Amino acid sequence: MKDIIILGGGLSGISTAYFLQHMEWVRSITIIEKESKTGGLCRTIQKGKYHYDIGPHILFSKDKEMLALMLEVLEEKNDLKRSNQIYYKGHHIQYPFENDLSKLPPEELQYCIHTFNHNPYENYTAENMIQFFLKTFGEGITNTYLRPYNEKIWKYDPVFMNTSMVERIPKPTQEEIRRSAAGETLEGYLHQLYFHYPAQGGIESVVRGLEKRLDKEKCHIKTENTVTKIEKNRTGYSIKTKGGLCYTGDMLISTIPVQELTFVYPKANETIQKRVVDLKYNSIAIAFVKTPYDLCGNHFAFMVPDKNIIFHRISKMDFLGEAYHFENEATYMVEVTYRENDYIASMDDKELFSQIQKGLCEIGFAKSPADVEQIDLTRYEYAYVIYDLNHTKNMSVIRDFYKNEGIILNGRFGNFEYWNMDKILRENLELSLKLNNKYKGV
Ligand SMILES: Cc1cc2nc3c(=O)[nH]c(=O)nc-3n(C[C@H](O)[C@H](O)[C@H](O)COP(=O)(O)OP(=O)(O)OC[C@H]3O[C@@H](n4cnc5c(N)ncnc54)[C@H](O)[C@@H]3O)c2cc1C
User: Fold this and answer.
1) Smallest Cα–Cα separation from 239: which of 227, 251, 254?
2) What class, spelled out in words, does domain 2-42+62-76+206-277+390-439 have in CATH?
């Protein structure tokens, strides 16, 4: 029988416990979480009557089994159809960009069609993200939208990013580009055209739904417990947390960012420390704001490639359902990414908010900065994994090290992969089946 310790109570921690709890060789599961509630990036913040996520989290997946699980644990869901736009120099282009080219100003339209039809990069093997865009979409679509938007969201030059994030993006046909340029708006990226969202309580309802199904006798959640030191001994692991508590177990699964794990694991040698420090990620500031009128229309998300506007995406909460809609006002979630030591990281919140007000006026969502009221503004350190050119090598060395230590890495930042909720569940289901094969009957 095993006593399992899971570090981190985000979706990974909770779902790993959910999948493992009924296995006969599992005696106990203890989840150690530093925040006052579980959920991690899938937490929903409540401010008075408002609920909002850490970035708009929508439920969609090609993985029907995992999507069904997320929906099954919800009390009630809303079924929605995407209506996203790209803001380009005052023009609203339906997302995905390449499917609505006729909304571009004439010069950019010609540039995009011409360089798609006569593409000198078409036959290269793409070795980085920009090469992939040039090869797949041509120079016009790349330079008009894909390059500036990606530079803005990642805060990292996509020339130094590999193709992991983009290689599944379908290449439009000449026929599609011709129709899109001629005025037809085509639907693209069909796997996320329809999506779901909890009817109440925001995305955290998925985590709460899973948590409710945990066996209280077997699973113990310890919140407000930051892991400060991990020791490995002959029989297993001992975990010390801030406040002087100590937990022991004979199996350790870590879903906390691999950097945080390495900082508290003294056996991680200099080589591992260096690899971990070389991993690239960005952080995010989430501003939740309201205006006394709605100038956005019946749309959900707006992508903003313009670098003079501080945010890369803005989402109208009303779109998600009745519980998120309030009379005589529109509420928006505004996302601003940044990286350690860049100009946004060092900007204070007052300046950041004033830039957001300015940006909302510029895209026509507010008539004056004074009309934009801040409900909340919070920064989160770990937002997106950046697949820089060293990512694969760094993670392979780090994974080997922890495998030798018997520590199982798991989760978005635990494994350092760009995983959405469906993938997190799939990985955790696979992990629990693998462990079951190894330990059942032992
Ligand atoms: C802006 C944004 C938008 C997104 N949109 C979507 C979407 O639309 N659809 C979708 O499917 N997915 C989306 N995702 C992805 C989704 O949020 C993640 O896949 C998921 O939340 C990852 O869960 P996790 O448990 O692996 O990691 P996390 O949620 O990061 O959990 C890690 C946990 O470890 C805890 N922890 C950290 N350090 C310590 C420590 N020292 N001691 C104890 N505990 C610690 C943290 O507090 C946290 O609770 C989005 C993510 C972001 C950032």
Assistant:
1) 227
2) alpha beta
Tokens of 396: 């392979």
Cβ of 32 below 6 Å from ligand 1 = yes
- Please report which helix (H) or strand (E) contains residue 219, including its range: strand 219-222
Measured between alpha carbons, how far is 94 from 92 in angstroms, rounded to an integer?
A: 7
In the chain, what are the domain boundaries? 2-42+62-76+206-277+390-439, 98-186
pLDDT in tens, 284-299: 999 999 999 999 889 9
Tell me, using a 6 A CB cutoff, whether residue 289 lines ligand 1.
no
DSSP one-letter string for 360-373:
HHHTTS-SSGGG-E
- Per-residue pLDDT tens over the stretch 59-87: 999 999 999 999 999 999 999 999 999 99
How many CB atoms within 10 Å of residue 191? Answer: 10
Give tens-digit pLDDT for 395-407. Answer: 999 999 999 999 9
User: How far is the centre of ligand 1, averaged over its atoms, from the C-alpha of 424 (Å)?
Assistant: 10
Q: Could you tell me the pTM of the whole model?
A: 0.95
